[in-house]
Hints:
The complex is a heterotrimer of chains A (about 500), B (about 140) and C (about 350).
Chain A: H1 9-27, H2 33-44, H3 49-66, H4 68-73, H5 83-94, H6 98-131, H7 136-147, H8 149-153, H9 157-172, E1 174-175, E2 186-187, H10 194-197, H11 203-222, H12 229-232, H13 250-265, H14 272-285, H15 297-321, H16 327-338, H17 347-350, H18 352-380, H19 388-406, H20 411-429, H21 434-458, H22 463-466, H23 469-499
Antiparallel strand pairs in A: 1-2
Chain B: H1 2-9, H2 18-51, H3 63-86, H4 92-109, H5 115-139
Helix pairs in contact in B: 3-4, 4-5
Chain C: H1 2-18, E1 34-38, H2 46-62, E2 66-69, H3 73-82, E3 88-93, H4 95-101, H5 110-113, E4 115-123, E5 126-131, H6 139-147, E6 152-156, H7 161-176, E7 184-188, H8 192-200, E8 206-210, H9 211-214, E9 228-236, H10 237-240, H11 253-257, E10 260-261, E11 279-285, H12 291-307, H13 309-316, E12 320-324, H14 326-347
Parallel strand pairs in C: 1-2, 1-3, 6-7, 6-8, 9-10
Antiparallel strand pairs in C: 3-11, 4-11, 4-12, 5-8, 5-9
Amino acid sequence: xxxxxxxxxxxxxxxxxxxxxxxxxxxxxxxxxxxxxxxxxxxxxxxxxxxxxxxxxxxxxxxxxxxxxxxxxxxxxxxxxxxxxxxxxxxxxxxxxxxxxxxxxxxxxxxxxxxxxxxxxxxxxxxxxxxxxxxxxxxxxxxxxxxxxxxxxxxxxxxxxxxxxxxxxxxxxxxxxxxxxxxxxxxxxxxxxxxxxxxxxxxxxxxxxxxxxxxxxxxxxxxxxxxxxxxxxxxxxxxxxxxxxxxxxxxxxxxxxxxxxxxxxxxxxxxxxxxxxxxxxxxxxxxxxxxxxxxxxxxxxxxxxxxxxxxxxxxxxxxxxxxxxxxxxxxxxxxxxxxxxxxxxxxxxxxxxxxxxxxxxxxxxxxxxxxxxxxxxxxxxxxxxxxxxxxxxxxxxxxxxxxxxxxxxxxxxxxxxxxxxxxxxxxxxxxxxxxxxxxxxxxxxxxxxxxxxxxxxxxxxxxxxxxxxxxxxxxxxxxxxxxxxxxxxxxxxxxxxxxx
Amino acid sequence: xxxxxxxxxxxxxxxxxxxxxxxxxxxxxxxxxxxxxxxxxxxxxxxxxxxxxxxxxxxxxxxxxxxxxxxxxxxxxxxxxxxxxxxxxxxxxxxxxxxxxxxxxxxxxxxxxxxxxxxxxxxxxxxxxxxxxxxxxxxxxxxxx
Amino acid sequence: xxxxxxxxxxxxxxxxxxxxxxxxxxxxxxxxxxxxxxxxxxxxxxxxxxxxxxxxxxxxxxxxxxxxxxxxxxxxxxxxxxxxxxxxxxxxxxxxxxxxxxxxxxxxxxxxxxxxxxxxxxxxxxxxxxxxxxxxxxxxxxxxxxxxxxxxxxxxxxxxxxxxxxxxxxxxxxxxxxxxxxxxxxxxxxxxxxxxxxxxxxxxxxxxxxxxxxxxxxxxxxxxxxxxxxxxxxxxxxxxxxxxxxxxxxxxxxxxxxxxxxxxxxxxxxxxxxxxxxxxxxxxxxxxxxxxxxxxxxxxxxxxxxxxxxxxxxxxxxxxxxxxxxxxxxxxxxxxxxxxxxxxxxxxx
Lengths: 500, 145, 349
């Protein structure tokens, strides 16, 4: 246990500081875990290897977790992967159960984080070998599977699918990116848009535009009235948090954590798919699927345990293949190279002490995240008590900072915020559903690459079905998911019929 | 016959035009679904619009606040870019545009412009952007216009 | 000119009033903080790393704040175009002209559009790999196989640095076996992960990769599906020869030299010269940037290199330090671009 000597008090202090700073970054709408890691990367240059990694891993865990706060309180996903947290979190907050929702999410986050750290520790090399069995075809099917959530999520199935496809189309605007293997040609836009949209709309500004700015426009239309006195005190009116809420959720916790870890492990799928997929699964298996999306704890559990499960998962290919599993780990790779450390299939064996200390930092950061958030929540939840005339300008300002900074200073990303703010406001009025649209937008780009590349490299359609046993299993899941979501729709129609 | 089936299965994607392949599929699906939706709903929707049951704006919409919001935000974005151009790489575009923006938007949304509220608004408009600028731009070196 | 002076003095006044923390070297014609945009959107990649190292040294030398922003080439060019004062600079590599030569969208002729600034480092790691159980053991076997009618698939990212070595291979087949060059087929993929995956899936016979990203794969046992071998490093042997003797990971410099252009591997460019490709990092300036500013940065960087510290930092991260002033870099890169243009065009029909 030589690595114990490497663990100084500074090591733990930095991991804790990282977790706390990460939470703040994650909690500010528009700031993400990736950004937190990116801005602190230069700091690690002066720190030692172990300390630097402790700080960055803390930021990673904190940043992913912090995203749940605005998702619940303001209906704005703090990071793209907390999008599914808004579905049940915000309705709960509106019922006065903000504190309960936050605490459920924090516990779920802790479970997901610890679970994935353990998986990383015990199974990283084995799982990495499994991950490389996923070629273009299997990756496309995974994304297709995640897209099936659109069917179950939408209020009206035809409109929902239409909105989802519209989201996919929006994500394709710009060039067919060469860095994804495309040919770099532009499509779906007019020549005057080329300088701005060469790489399409960025995800984060689109997301906070659709959720954040459009809400503010809607409120302005309604006159931005402050809620009345009795509404205001409703912070404590709702059900209090009890650990018993997790009764019957153990399966959900484990499944969603595994899904998160697994998606994190597959390079190129993108972190947000994790919570989307976990949410789909929970909805498919739930006893009361029609209630999900109206403020059910099980939705929160699925979403948050999956997106923290991502952290350990995304580190698996990084540390055992040298390939980042998501955008944050892509930045982390920079920390290794800055320290002159090479990541690849031999990393763990050659740097066993660093490996142990990374796992330690990851576990510790999760615990710090839990303790800090669990006890700070009471104060954080008070955000909803701030009057609108103070809160809204600040939200717009913070969204602006985040949009501008997400790609290191591009003004068009700020305009994207406004474009999608207005679009989101109009969408809801003409029946286009925003949640399916966003999911289409998130997954559209990778769906294209893996679909086109599958056909391009194998030259036949049937490969999509027959490529491997994994592909067939995935098809089974896809069909099941679609069938179940149709049944859910039928059932909920009956329900509403009965209540009439 | 069997060969014909086999040939149905094969697909060649020309790399030079592959950027159109997927968008075309999506657009076709959108067109099909779109016309389906239109066909199924055009009459009831049209009736609803004619009879006034469907309205684009919410009932008793606050057009003043809505319109000013829709103007204020673009002006804010434009001005921070413009200021950032004159005073480059110091994050001043953000700071100098945010202070008036936060102030004006707060005033717009505030219903009871009491002396107390105005004091809070003014203090907030100065403090909040300055703190953000100080912490994020100077401490964390986050990019700002 | 007068107007420029006025506006810059206005900037100076404002800067002094509002940012008293920043102090300036007395003769610095660039007033205020400097933003360096890079042609890559990744903060984990080699462009960011090279830019971070050089700007840190430069910032210390001229006593100014310099921030590196990974905005990508498209947004980078826009930012550069807007600011002629020298407050926005760009750092990019050979992709700047290769993207143009390959006709990629969004690229223009950098020699016409920008001022080429100093070059400062080379990443010697660009190369090609095969699977360890591949029938091909070296470049000769690959080229001969293609020449004799066998299809060889090469996974690359089209339109730039990753493709230029493939173009050279194709050109080599054309020279030795005229008309057979189309047996070498490009498999267009994106990230390194996609290229590796193409090799694991058996979709590609040869992949583009790098010493930094793939060295550990070459040390895996042959029965591992992931095991790979280098067949070619495109950098000049004399360039790799300047690296630290320990090379990268467990592969020493001398071992790497076996795959280097002109030493272990000879890919002909034409009848009398060999093809080599050093991936060089250099500055790009706005066309209207003043000669004083250009000269000032030239001198400052020359001093940075004269101090000798930055070379060590670069070498530690497997870069080869290589300083050229703007004028020298302009001439050198133009010549390099012209020579590659020849082979790219010779393959166009």
